[in-house]
Structure formats: structure tokens, C-alpha cells
Amino acid sequence: MEPIRISYFSDVLCIWAYIAQVRLEELKTTFQDKIAIDYHFVPVFGNAREKLENRWREKGGLKGYSDHVQEVVKKFNHITVHADIWTKVTPPSSTSCHLFLHAIQLLELKGIIPAAEKAFEKATWRFREAFFTELADVSDRKVQCAIAEQLGLPIAAIQEQIDSGEAYALLSKDFDLVKEHTVSVSPTLIFNEGRQRLNGNVGYRVIEANIRELLHNPPGEESWC
């Protein structure tokens, strides 16, 4: 049987996507080749600084948002965030991160980096971790390259994917899918060719139940549910 395809939309700078990473890893461990995850980015923080300053103007500005993130994280024991998150370092945009990560993804798709190394997934997680725990400005190309070097990735080859326009094309495809599926929340999981979706902070058991239902009743088969 073909694996259940899951379109996973997230923003690198989103605290909820950072929290949800452990659920994604558990899904891959539990279902293995029964699911296939297609990663896409949604620019929730495409204009991060201005967005947060405007939306949190009456609630303490960036400091208010930082306090909010800290309160959210207190509810989970599997992650930590830096005490000065979003205040001492405020990345202007997640879009540059997404572009760079798509360039890494292209190296996998072209076989320049073995897919088995999961470089794209590792780099995406490292970008999140670097920002939330180390206050790294992951929107800065120098920081992006430094992280790639730490992971042993070929910087020149990554830059080629950006310079050629191919990484931009992949990012543009994300934008098209975001519009097509009206995705506005990070993370968002879309199943069953767009007929099912889970938005935001959804518990693991809920995600698992959706997948098991699809495995039990494949798309196209009738179900009384």
C-alpha cells in the first residue's frame, strides 16, 4: 500500500512548531514507511519584527511577546528557550531561513547529499534550536552558513541552488500551496489530499488517530464514519 502522505507546513521561528517537533519524530518512529511527510514552509514570521511590534504594541511589545513564549514553554518539559528570546535578538524574517533550507533540500533531491543523511530535516531542527536556545539570528546568511558548516554541508553547493533560482522556485511553490490550502497557522498538517487538516498545538494522540483512520479506511474506500 502507498504511504499516507502528510503535508507539513511550519515556520522556523514558530514556538509551536518548535514544541511539535517531538510529535513529528514520534510519528516517523511509529509509522515508519506507512507515512511520507512532505515539508513546506508558511511565512508566519515573514515580516517578524514589524508584525510582533504591531500586534503586541498594547501588551508590552517584543518583551510582552517574549514573556508569552516563556509562559507557553513552561507547559512542556521537553524543550527550553533562552530567557531573552525575541528581545535581545529579533530576526527580521523567517523567509531567508526557509530559502536556505530549501537549497539544502534540493541537494538531497538531486542526490548531491545522500537522502539517508536527512540533512534537510537536521538543518531545519538545528535552525529552530539555534534561535530558541542560543539566540542565533538565523535570518542572517552568515549564521545560516555557520550552521551548515557545523552540519558538514557544502556551502558552495547550497549557494548554487540559491543563485540558480531553484531554491526560490521551491519556496514559491510553498507560497502557492499555502494559498491553495489557505494555511495560516504553524504548524499545519494536511492529509487525504486536503480533506483533513490539523492546525496548531494538536496533541500527538489526535494526529496518530487521524493517521490510523486513514490506514484503516484508505482514501476512496467508503466508511460509515
Question: Can you write the helix and strand succession as a string?
Answer: EHEHHHHHHHEEH
CATH architecture: 3-Layer(aba) Sandwich
Major beta sheet, strand line-up = 2-1-3-4
Q: Tell me the overall shape.
A: globular
Q: Classify the secondary structure makeup into a structural class.
A: alpha+beta
The CATH homologous superfamily is called: Glutaredoxin
- The count of DSSP E runs of length 2 or more, i.e. the number of strands, is 4
Let me know the average pLDDT.
94
CATH class: Alpha Beta
Strand content: 5-15%
Distance between the termini: 21 Å
The value of Rg in angstroms is 18 Å
Task: Please describe what this structure looks like.
- The protein has 225 residues and is of the alpha+beta class.
- 52% of the residues lie in helices and 10% in strands.
- It has a four-stranded mixed beta sheet with strand order 2-1-3-4, sandwiched between helices.
- Helix 1 links the parallel strand 1 and strand 2.
- Helix 4 crosses helix 7.
- The mean pLDDT is 94.
- It comes from Oscillatoriales cyanobacterium SpSt-418.
- This is Disulfide bond formation protein DsbA.
- GO terms for molecular function: oxidoreductase activity.
Can you describe this structure in just a few lines?
It comes from Oscillatoriales cyanobacterium SpSt-418. InterPro entries: DSBA-like_thioredoxin_dom (IPR001853), Thioredoxin-like_sf (IPR036249). This protein is α+β, with helices and mostly antiparallel strands and 225 residues long.
